[in-house]
Amino acid sequence: MALADFIADLNALSAEADASFASAADAAALEAARVEYLGAKAGRLKAVQQGLGKVDKADKPAAGKRFNEVKQAIEAAFAAAQERQSRGAVVAEREAFDVTLPGRPVRLGRLHPVTQTIAEMKDIMGRLGFTAVEGPEIEDDWHNFEALNIPRSHPARDPLDNFYLATAQLTPGESPGAKSLGGKPLLLRSQTSTVQIRVMESTPPPVRIISLGRVYRPDTADATHYPMFHQIEGLLIDRGVTMADLKSVLRLFCQSYFGSVEAGGQDVHVRFRPSFFPFTEPSVEVDMSWTNAAGEHGWLEMGGAGMVDPNVLRAVGYDPEEVTGFAFGLGVERICMRQHGITDIRALYENDVRFLEQF
Ligand code: FA5
Predict the structure, then answer these.
(1) Other C-beta atoms lying within 10 Å of the C-beta of residue 322
(2) What is residue 264's three-state secondary structure?
(3) How many C-beta atoms surround the C-beta of residue 132 within 10 A?
(4) 180-217 burial by CB neighbour count: b if 16+ within 10 A, else e?
(5) What three-state secondary structure class fits 309?
(6) pTM
(7) Domain 113-137+189-356, CATH 3.30.70.100 — does that match?
(8) Quick one: pLDDT band at residue 175, thresholds 50, 70, 90?
(9) Which of 154, 157, 215, 229 gets mutated to test ligand 1 (max ligand atoms within 8 A of its CB)?
């Protein structure tokens, strides 16, 4: 067989294959064309290859080279046709999009019940003239204990009752707070009373603030305790402040928070029970009366309060002969639970959307 004839056959086949791939209407037609031209057993390229054996010996290298070129060209034409088809399928799908279909509704999230309670508390206390301030959750023992009149020997400072941090890891420069601490022990604050000290250290009297935030204690979790919880701290310092002011503010706070919801317009009462806190003198436990939907009456323990101890005023540079003040610290979760009838504090932190979306 002459080389020219062999090459003419190859060129003709290549042109036919190109046309065939280009005109294949769908994936099935393209596949049929592929089998016709490139099929391993009975493909037409295979048939032309058999002619290679009949080409004159001297022409064989040139014939073989041309054969390989054409084979690659046909394979490339097939791949290109396949690519065109799949791109076309995507476009077709996009064009099939029905713009008249109703959209998928976006599910709105909502604030966590504790966050809602905090916002309501800030709102009520704001109306009573208290400014909300923040304090750090990692504290030194000066603000968490020492300045609050809790001496080194006090059992409240026991490592087993607090989350101390390994201060050795906090070399100066590693954390913004560490530098000024001079290697003093650090802990996750166990109460928001720390913020009283921070505010008084940086502000001359009069002071009228609240602080709401997380505190941490190694308490075993049960229906009313959690190792992380929130407190609302209140502090009022001025000339001539008395326990009567404390009681009035707490009663107004409780009445605003619960009055319309639980008591159905009934008066809300606040009860003080004698207690002890190193940073207040005298100190009290604060209870609030409540009536539930079934008309049952009871007392809810809210937290601690008292008149700021003169030692604390002195520690921050105030003159206890000049000014007096009161402070209180209430558990936010307990109040939130009472409002919504939640009976187990753990439910607030299990992140079960079926529970949380009810509030
Ligand atoms: C204090 O933390 C004082 N700092 C309160 C205070 C402030 C007194 C200012 C005087 C002046 P106490 O440890 O009792 O007090 O905690 C206050 C409230 O936090 C409790 O009444 C309770 O409502 C809540 N509480 C305490 N431990 C937990 C806990 N593990 N889980 C949830 N709530 C808690």
Answers:
(1) 11
(2) coil
(3) 16
(4) ebeeebbbbbbbbbbbbbbbbeeeebebbbbbbbebbb
(5) coil
(6) 0.70
(7) no
(8) very low
(9) 229
Domain boundary assignment for the chain: 3-96, 113-137+189-356
E strands in 154-206: 164-165, 186-188
**What is the Cα–Cα distance from 336 to 120, expressed in whole angstroms?**
10
222 — pLDDT class (breaks 50, 70, 90):
very high
Picking from 162-176, 201-215, 313-327, 343-357, which range would have the lowest pLDDT averaged per residue? 162-176
Q: Give, using CA atoms, the residue closest to atom 21 of ligand 1.
A: 303
Cα radius of gyration (the chain): 40
Evaluated on CA atoms 128, 130, 131, 132, the torsion sign reads negative
Residue 63 tokens read as 């014939």
User: Cα-flanking dihedrals φ and ψ of residue 307, to 5°?
Assistant: -85, 130
Match 């602080």 to its residue by tokens: 211
For residues 113 and 340, the answer to whether their CB atoms sit within 8 Å is yes
Residues paired with residue 229 on neighbouring β-strands, in sequence order: 215
Cα(92)–Cα(94) distance, rounded to whole angstroms? 5
Would the CA dihedral through 140, 146, 152, 153 be positive or negative? Answer: negative
Do β-strands 207-216 and 228-238 pair in parallel, antiparallel, or remain unpaired? antiparallel
Pocket of ligand 1, beta carbon within 6 A: 191, 193, 217, 219, 225-226, 229, 231, 277, 280, 283, 301, 303-306, 327-329, 331, 333-334, 345
Kindly tell me the sign of the dihedral angle through the C-alpha atoms of 49, 51, 57, 59: negative
